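Page 42, continued from yesterday. The earlier attempt failed because a stray header line got pasted into the input along with the sequence. Redoing it now with the clean sequence only.
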Amino acid sequence: MDQSELRDLFKDFDAMVYAVGPDDRITPEAPAFEFFHERLVEACSRVVQAAKDAGVKKTVICNSYFAYFDRTRPELKLKEKHAYIQCRVEQAQRCIEIGGDEMIVIILEFPYIFGTHPVREPIWKDLIIKRIQDWNKYVYFFHGGSNMITVEHIAESIVGALENGRESKRYPIGDENVTWERWLKIILDEMGTDKKILFLPPWAGKLYGSFLRWQEKREGKEAGLDYRTLFKDIQSREFFFDPTPSQEELGYSGGGVEESIRKTVQRCLEGDGE
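This time it went through. Structure tokens are written below.
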């Protein structure tokens, strides 16, 4: 679809929500930067430019909380190390520049999201549930944690940005800060398993990540998050933040994270005989 066709799609609309594009779970053919840059930066920029040209006055873009931590923890050099994070940062910068003084561009930076869909399986089935099922006595993970939120409150934040966003701005969107230990204990309890959690040191993650990167290179692929530093710099840290300023400004609420994690696990186990 060319720019004129895109522009025609947005005629007579006041606002747009951009919520498409690959996330960090995708492992494309190398180089990863080209893959993510085309889909997160270039594609999004074309759509935002078309919306602006059509007279849209406000755009909300769904982004990643990795961009927030790139700003607030520069010592980790996240965008320098990880192609996916670099492209998320560039996506926000480019689109805010396109908006200029004529269109408000609001960037929502999302953390771990939990919830269910009536048709689609949760992403967590492959990411964590199947792995726990495959492991024998122990679940292997790292000390650390992340901010987490329910899908319902993600929806609230998007509506809040549309209704209450007054200027182009980046908002870290989240709810509850949860350690990996607590998160895994909730999952294991809901799965009904007595497997124990074995926490690995960061150096073990670096070794494992180097092995995964070696496997990728053999296959001609490259992940958006570099495995060589992922476990040491991200998974072994507490990626926590205070969501209160964003909640108050945009008008979205919180709560229900543990319940949503449990419902997500239940949905993952449907049909598995667990």
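Notes: The mean pLDDT is 96.
Reminder to self: strip header lines before submitting.
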